[in-house]
Design a protein that fits this description.
The structure holds two protein chains of two kinds. Chain A is built from eleven helices and no strands. Chain A is mainly α. By secondary structure, chain B is mainly α. Chain B has two domains: 44 residues, no CATH class; 52 residues, no CATH class. The longest helix of chain B has 25 residues. Chain B is extended, with a radius of gyration of 21 Å. The chains are: A mainly alpha, B mainly alpha. The interface between A and B is large, with 91 and 68 residues.
């Protein structure tokens, strides 16, 4: 138990720094919109989505109807609908925490879990993925509280610290690159996201890009060798 | 609507909708039925493609045609990647890359 927790803590450390900052940015937005700590905390616990919560604050401040909030939240978080595909079986390792694993599957938790290969013992793996997801959630909530309470008082210039999330994805990108012999999925992901970004612009490219990526991966499935991936051998 | 009822309902709605997006694949394939082989395969090759997409997602608001041409982002990514290929220590790569980016946007590319 302790070993799994320690392992998860080490693996999620990069998210700690990123979430403390991003979370406090969201907490600060709540504060500025006139919503006290309680609301920022509740959103951190129950919504737990960076871009989703930023959207929520702006909708709250213009008293948007609930149906609008529902519709826009579904759209902005639609990319998450693809993440679970890699964890349909693996999340069962977490047993009772299965629903929580689904609830807490953010961009960052997704990439951390992808970077931890599933090893033989299902029970141990279940503990590790649960602790990783749970710790990320706690970092986020702490960040939200800090931002809501003291974000405006911090004298240090934190501008740019949000880059830690980009850096996290770059590092996991390199790890994935080294672990898989076939780089076709990476080319497909890069190609479709860059071309969709150029075609649809920053606010609407992610969904068409993921749909194209998934379609191409299904069409080309026989060209991507699974057996060769080193992760498979290790498992 | 009551003043504290509205934000409460809004948070509940936003939370439920976020959960719904994450639930989709589990609701379709997560039951007792056997997961189709195509989906299993897809789940194994998807992470590499999605992580690549997330890197692009992080850079989506960077303007490569105006002001600094995305120089701070590109330099910081190069530092992160080079350090990671050299030392392969996740925290070192992310820490140095982030500090490098902060210095660049606060002091160099103002």
């Amino acid at each position: 138990m302790k070993a799994s927790f320690g392992f998860a803590f080490k693996r999620t450390l990069p998210v700690l720094f990123g979430y403390l900052f991003l979370g406090s940015a969201v907490g600060l937005l709540f504060y500025k919109a006139g919503y006290s700590l309680v609301w920022a905390f509740l959103a951190g616990v129950l919504v737990y989505a960076g871009s989703g919560e930023m959207l929520l604050v702006s909708l709250l401040s213009c008293s948007a109807p609930l149906i609008t909030i529902a519709f826009l939240t579904l759209i902005i978080n639609s990319r998450h609908a693809f993440y679970g595909l890699s964890f349909i079986d693996r999340f069962k390792n977490a047993k009772k925490a299965y629903p929580y694993m689904i609830f807490s599957l953010t961009d960052e938790t997704y990439s951390i879990l992808c970077s931890i290969p599933e090893k033989g013992d299902r029970e141990k793996d279940g503990r590790i993925i649960f602790f990783s997801a749970f710790l990320d959630h706690m970092y986020w909530i702490c960040g939200t509280i800090i931002g809501s309470l003291a974000g405006r008082l911090l004298s240090f210039n934190w501008a740019g610290v949000e880059f830690s999330m980009t850096a996290l994805f770059v590092v996991i990108f390199i790890e994935q690159w080294k672990n898989y012999k076939s780089h076709l999925p990476v080319y497909i992901g890069l190609g479709s996201s860059v071309s969709c970004l150029l075609a649809f612009g920053a606010s609407g490219f992610i969904l068409p890009s993921l749909i194209i990526t998934v379609s191409l991966l299904i069409i080309l499935k026989n060209k991507i060798p699974l057996e060769n991936s080193k992760l498979q051998e290790a498992a | 609507m009551n003043s504290s009822l509205y934000p409460l309902a809004a948070i509940a709605v936003a939370g439920a909708c976020t959960f719904a997006t994450r639930l989709v694949p589990f609701a379709i394939f997560g039951g007792k039925r056997e997961v189709p082989e195509t989906v299993t395969r897809l789940g194994k090759v998807l992470p590499a493609a999605i992580i690549a997409t997330l890197v692009v997602y992080c850079l989506k608001d960077v303007s490569f045609v105006s002001s600094h041409h995305g120089a701070p982002e590109l330099i910081a990514i190069a530092v992160t990647a080079a350090l990671h290929l050299w030392k392969r220590s996740t925290l070192l790569s992310i820490g140095c890359g982030t500090v490098c980016y902060m210095l660049l946007i606060q002091h160099v590319f103002i």
